[in-house]
Every structure is written in structure tokens, then in C-alpha cells.
Design goal:
Blueprint (H helix, E strand, L loop, with lengths): L5 H12 L5 H14 L8 H8 L3 H4 L2 H12 L10 H4 L7 H22 L3 H17 L4 H12 L12 H19 L1 H18 L4 H7 L1
Helix pairs in contact: 1-2, 1-5, 3-5, 7-10, 7-11, 7-12, 8-9, 8-10, 10-11
């Protein structure tokens, strides 16, 4: 992959994914690939496919999607679809998906920051307790599966592509309740406030989303 231009690789990813994803989810997947995997070797495609195939329907197609991507990565440029960076307006998904994506990014950054403020031993316990709470919740399976994937693989990105703001607030509240039970409400409040301040400072463009989630 390193000898291919970014445009060539993006066209290959776009061509390979197009039969499987809606336009909005396809654009979010392309953006995720550019942010996390564009400079990675072909072997990283397996992790990329796992990231974007979290719901029940796509999970059954992971191997097919991976084979398709490996195939399109080997195709010459003239056989690929046009670069989505130039053929799609501003390379952005629709307004609703764009808004949900911004809230998802803010949510993931906030939860990760809160977890990082806990001592290593406490982090492990918090993950186990939150995992247990998720199993008892009535959240959609795709949301639960994505969160459980993140809890089991701390270095993995937390991706909840199409989760609405109301659902993210519900998950955040559940995480906060578990945290209160573990460290007490005073410490939990301090961790939440510190994490929100850190994310706000590092990602000022997410200020609106953070305010809405808190």
C-alpha cells in the first residue's frame, strides 16, 4: 500500500465498501480510514473492517468485505470508482449523520478521558462493572456490542456511528452511575468535570457536543 497514492488507496476503499454501506455510513467509514488507517499496511485492513462492522448484519459480512477490500486494493486505478474526495460534495455525509458523528466523537473522547483519570487497577474494575451493566441494559445490540468491543480492547477507537444524542447521554449516565458506585459521587463528579475540561481544551470544536451530553 505504501507505493500507492492516498487518492488511489481511498478510491480502492471506497470502491470496496460501496456495495455494503449506505452513503452516509460509507462516508463516515472513509473518514475513519483516513484518520486511523491510511498510513497503515494492508494487514491493518482487518482491524479497519472490524471497526466499521459492529452491527449484527455487517458482522456476518466481515470476511466478504475484507476480501473485497483486498481485491480492490490490488486493482489498477482505472478500474476503481472516482475518488470520493472529489466526486462527493465536500466529502461529507448528510447533515443528520454528520451531527451524530460529532456527538459520537465527543462521547468517545469524554469516556476515554474519564477512564484515563482512574488508576490502572481501578480502570480494570470499572470496565468489568460497566460491561456487566451493559449486559443488563435495554440498549440496541449494535450500541452494546460497540461499547463491549471498546471495553475489551482499550486501545481500540470507540465508534458509535449512528447513535443519537439521546442514546449517548443514556450511556454516559450509566457509566457515571457505575463510577459513582466505585469511587463515590464526589470523586465521580471531579473525574467527569476534569475529563470534560481536558477534552474541551484538546478538541475545542467539540464544545457544543460536550455541553449537550453533560
Amino acid at each position: 500500500m505504501s507505493s500507492m497514492s492516498l487518492s488511489h488507496r481511498r478510491r480502492a476503499i471506497y470502491t470496496g465498501l460501496k456495495p455494503f454501506l449506505s452513503d452516509d455510513r460509507l462516508q463516515l467509514a472513509i473518514r475513519h480510514w483516513e484518520a486511523q488507517y491510511a498510513d497503515q499496511p494492508s494487514l491493518a485492513l482487518q482491524r479497519f473492517v472490524a471497526d466499521i462492522c459492529r452491527d449484527a448484519e455487517l458482522k456476518t459480512k466481515r470476511s466478504t468485505i475484507l476480501r473485497q477490500l483486498l481485491q480492490t486494493m490490488a486493482q489498477p486505478e482505472q478500474e476503481l470508482l472516482a475518488d470520493p474526495g472529489s466526486s462527493l460534495p465536500n466529502n461529507k455525509p448528510g447533515p443528520a449523520a454528520e451531527a451524530d458523528h460529532a456527538y459520537s466523537v465527543a462521547f468517545g473522547a469524554l469516556l476515554s478521558a474519564m477512564m484515563a483519570l482512574l488508576p490502572d487497577g481501578q480502570q480494570h474494575k470499572q470496565r468489568l462493572e460497566f460491561f456487566s451493566a451493559l449486559r443488563k441494559s435495554d440498549m440496541p445490540a449494535r450500541i452494546t456490542e460497540s461499547l463491549q468491543h471498546w471495553l475489551s480492547q482499550p486501545s481500540a477507537p470507540l465508534l458509535l456511528y449512528d447513535a443519537p444524542k439521546s442514546m449517548l447521554r443514556k450511556v454516559l449516565n450509566q457509566f457515571y452511575v457505575v463510577l459513582c458506585e466505585a469511587v463515590g459521587p464526589v470523586s465521580a463528579d471531579r473525574i467527569l468535570a476534569t475529563a470534560a475540561k481536558q477534552v474541551g481544551a484538546e478538541r475545542p470544536e467539540l464544545g457544543k457536543q460536550l455541553d449537550a451530553l453533560l
